[in-house]
Amino acid sequence: MNNQQPTWLDKTAYSFTSHFLKVSQGELHYVDEGKGEPILFVHGTPTWSFLWRNQIKEFSTQYRCIAFDHLGFGLSTKPSDFSYSLDAHQQNLALLVEHLQLDNVTLVMHDFGGPIGLGWALQNPDKVARLVIMNTWMWPLTHVKSMMQGSKFFGSSVGKFLYTTLNFSPRFLLPLAFFHKEKLTKEIHQHYLLPFADKKERLGPWNFAKALAGETTYFEELLKLKQSLTEKPTLILWGTKDKLIPASFLEIWKQTLPTAHVIEMETGHFQQEENPEIVTRVIKEFFQDTMKTQEPVL
């Protein structure tokens, strides 16, 4: 099985061993660093496990950190015959959890990692210890006219051209989503562009763009099952200067998970890149606080 990393990868920034899990449509790339209680990092678009590198370095000294790349992203296979549906991505996540025999999992989710990670969590609440939610959603977007219109446009032939020929998502949308523009250096940006170097490798981001409008049923099912997660310790870590996700989503989260601890940051969509130190510190404090409350009384 292939375990080689590409030559363009900065091994200092991403100093992890690559592993691959064979699934029906290809190979799922993941890293598995450290020992202890498992933390499972779930990325969105157009990112990959590279997004979590700073958190993995810090947390792997105390915890077992697993971060994987969805099919069509990062170092995973980018098949042309994969459905790229949210449910198919969720099923791959389930296969990885089963393969690694994970239990008592803390899910850290961002962007499309939210509906994918929560899709698994809602079916396996007994395996979930905590949730960390970062600029994502778990409900239908039919009420957000701009997102629905954008999704339908990008699902058209013109949209497919933009995504597959011009590499629209990492080249244009990703920089737009940064509030602190200086944090997206040329070197970091390359690590989000180069996984999609070939036109044939860009179906993952395009299918996510279509999913906003096209997967309403999937989001409706998530919302129906939300009750099974309402008692889980939850941290909502929100970038308030996000140009991709409406600010109103934070209020919906507060209503959906009313006991969640909420921290707001002055960053854009990619908090992990714009302020990795604060992201790490806030999650670490959340871990410490929730572990205290979960300790048995002797």
UniProtKB/TrEMBL annotation:
Domain spans labelled AB hydrolase-1: 38-276
GO cellular component: membrane
Signal peptide start-end: none
Pfam family, one: Abhydrolase_1
Chain segments annotated as coiled-coil in the UniProt record: none
MF term (GO), any: catalytic activity
Taxonomic superkingdom: Bacteria
Name of the protein: AB hydrolase-1 domain-containing protein
Lineage: Bacteria, Pseudomonadati, Bacteroidota, Cytophagia, Cytophagales
